[in-house]
């Protein structure tokens, strides 16, 4: 069963908006056995949208469409779909009631333009949008079903969860699409490929292996598709165990979870807590950790010491250290980490200080220079790193490397 | 001049990776007058990639391709392009030297698989990749040029900047594509649309207006395309000034910059500084602010007080307040803000505390309940907010609303 996702909106084509919807939709569709074959983004142009509808129905049976359903003049999807499926616009009483109730609740005056949201083509089935005013719509033509949803992410997610996914499960007999993913660090993808090449060549033809390098780490993903879930699971588990052994020395975690969650799970299993003292990473490490549900179990908090005075006043870094060694130095990150572990009850800590760019670089500390310290009250290690990218990427790499350092530090403690 | 972007990789179709490349490419292409007409994502499938190459050349003259150039078996783009353009693989000495130098610098053994990176179809022009081992490649066929680049974002960006954009500027006479964007808060898009409907209907047909709602704010974007830059600029400036007046009461900033940058600029213009005390937002506000270059000029730092003891020990929140009022209360955020402004020399501060979910909700403080305080040593205001989304979205909304509150607080001070 193939799906295609059409996203509509000039903002996607001029780069004003990053499309996060498609990734989420693809994940959810995968879980119920639907493979997304293509994703297409087109602008707010009648001709281009029409063409995309024609084309995508050639390669997929399920066409998911997002965007262009708002109440303003640049939103042209609904009248276009009405024409495409040869319908005429009618008021849907259920939607009208829903829209009216929303405006009543918000205590905002409802205007003609909002009432228009309740008009839908008479050839569609309405998919209720509990989280907003623009309803989802389902059309059928030939062997295909077409589902149109708003582009606002949480509204799209609501309609997908409440309506679309249950409907697809009811309507089609799907195969199972199963993945197994593991995360490695400290080695390049070609080196891994070399190490596992004999094994990779021996993989059954219906099992796909993918290499996903990012932030100096490599994720390996096995994918299997088939009708018999038990058999697929067994086959994947077996191959995954083999892979596990082959890459053992670089393995971080044998699950498809981010590094910060792997670190969180490790802390939970050891009943330990952590905190961070961030200068150059500016709170990004704290954000990564606290974005994980349940992180309050093991995360105490953070001091973002961006200014010298915060480094001194809150973390107790010596003024003389900053004067003589500079903020970006082994001494400063070590004192930051010390101060953090004195100020908080956390068992482990991370401290960062660096020059993220574009300004602030010097000859001996060029843009991209970072010092990271990790450790406990008993033992600390510090490392100088150097990244060559833009500010945001340098921040992300600092965070990932710091998380990795602490992860390996804690893992290493067990081995002793 | 139309472009189409083809992104290749199963990770895009199963939702494992969010495509940020396309947005960046589109922005850069727009700046030199190239309009991206479509974006297509396809999997690691020879047939699907081939079909995409055929199709996209129907609607665009510039086809940009990313992904599938790595050294592992799932990377099939290069041999496919070689066949598509009827070439044969040859070693490129310049690339070979470059790849060898990279491995020498990293002090890693170079293997056969890495040397393969230096093989390219003899019918392509090599576009050097200074940031990695996989070279960019340019092909010509009919009226189209095809440019293939690695999917790793910073490598793609390097090739685009060093090679592709200069080449396109040399090769084509482009029109100008100009945008003007402003940001409003406090009102829905349909209300704005109503207010400006007469003006919008009177817009020249070659000027497009777009409504971009997000996080409870609405961005309005005017776009003009044409050959005479001066004339376009004049026309846009005139219309933008009219729009400015029409939405004056909700206007936050008349530039296409994020809210945190508007706040930064406001602080810079007043020569003031700020800091944050974050519980539920977990450092995300600090991250947004510090991701802006030059933020160290006005940003002092942050205490992420996730645990009770950090709220007490670092920010000086009274134990009795936490006991009697709870962490999510007006009293707690106000004490957090007070503590922050005592501990640091910042002029302004933000404090947040809330229940981000999925766990932790109670009857009187359900998931999504947030208290935000903003202000100075002289004056503070606090507000209770409620969001109904998932954890990450609740964190983002907390951050955006808190930034907006502080922005309006500081703006309001001037008015008095």
Give an account of the 3D structure.
The structure is a homodimer of 416-residue chains. Chain A is built from 16 helices and 17 strands. The first copy, chain A, is an alpha/beta fold and 416 residues long. Chain A has 3 domains: 170 residues, MoaB/Mog-like domain (Molybdenum Cofactor Biosythetic Enzyme, Chain A), CATH 3.40.980; 78 residues, Alpha-Beta Plaits, CATH 3.30.70; 157 residues, CinA-like (Maf protein, Alpha-Beta Complex), CATH 3.90.950.20. The first copy, chain A, has a 6-stranded mixed β-sheet, sandwiched between helices. A 5-stranded mixed β-sheet of chain A has the order 14-13-15-16-17, sandwiched between helices. In chain A, strands 10-11-9-12 form a 4-stranded antiparallel β-sheet. The interface between A and B is large, with 114 and 114 residues. Strand 14 of chain A pairs antiparallel with strand 14 of chain B, so a sheet runs across the interface. Chains A, B: This is CinA-like protein. Chains A, B: It holds the Pfam family MoCF_biosynth. Chains A, B: Belongs to the CinA family. Chains A, B: It comes from Lacibacter sediminis.
């Amino acid at each position: 069963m193939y799906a295609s996702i059409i996203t509509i909106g000039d903002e996607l084509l001029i780069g004003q908006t990053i499309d996060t919807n498609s990734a989420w939709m693809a994940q959810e569709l995968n879980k119920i056995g639907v493979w997304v074959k293509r994703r297409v983004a087109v602008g707010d142009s009648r001709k281009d949208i029409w063409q995309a509808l024609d084309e995508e129905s050639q390669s997929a049976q399920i066409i998911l469409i997002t965007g262009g359903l708002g109440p303003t003049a640049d939103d042209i999807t609904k009248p276009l779909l009405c024409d495409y499926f040869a319908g005429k616009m009618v008021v849907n009483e259920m939607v009208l009631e829903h829209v009216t109730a929303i405006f009543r609740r918000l205590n905002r005056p409802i205007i003609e333009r909002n009432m228009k949201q309740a008009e839908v083509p008479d050839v569609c089935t309405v998919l209720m949008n509990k989280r907003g005013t623009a309803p989802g719509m389902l059309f059928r033509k030939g062997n295909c079903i077409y589902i149109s949803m708003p582009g606002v992410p949480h509204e799209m997610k609501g309609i997908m969860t409440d309506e679309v996914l249950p409907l697809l499960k009811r309507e089609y007999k799907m195969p199972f699409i199963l993945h197994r993913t593991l995360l490695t660090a400290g080695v390049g993808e070609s080196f891994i490929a070399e190490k596992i090449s004999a094994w990779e060549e021996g993989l059954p033809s219906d099992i796909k292996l993918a290499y996903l390098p990012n932030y100096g780490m490599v994720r390996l993903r096995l994918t299997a598709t088939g009708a018999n879930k038990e058999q697929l699971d067994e086959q994947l588990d077996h191959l995954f165990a083999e892979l596990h052994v082959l890459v053992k020395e670089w393995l971080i975690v044998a699950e498809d979870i981010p590094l910060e969650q792997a670190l969180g799970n490790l802390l939970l299993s050891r009943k330990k807590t952590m905190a961070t003292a961030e200068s150059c990473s500016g709170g990004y490490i704290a954000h990564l950790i606290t974005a994980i549900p349940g992180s309050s179990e093991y995360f105490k908090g953070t001091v973002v010491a961006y200014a010298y005075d915060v480094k001194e006043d809150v973390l107790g870094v010596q003024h003389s250290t900053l004067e003589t060694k500079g903020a970006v130095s082994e001494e400063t990150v070590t004192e930051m980490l010390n101060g953090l572990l004195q100020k908080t009850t956390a068992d482990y800590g991370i401290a960062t200080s660096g020059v993220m760019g574009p300004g602030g670089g010097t000859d001996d500390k060029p843009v991209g220079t970072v010092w990271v310290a990790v450790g406990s009250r008993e033992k600390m290690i510090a490392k100088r790193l150097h990244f060559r990218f833009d500010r945001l990427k340098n921040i992300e790499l600092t965070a990932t490397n710091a998380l990795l350092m602490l992860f390996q530090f804690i893992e290493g403690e067990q081995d002793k």
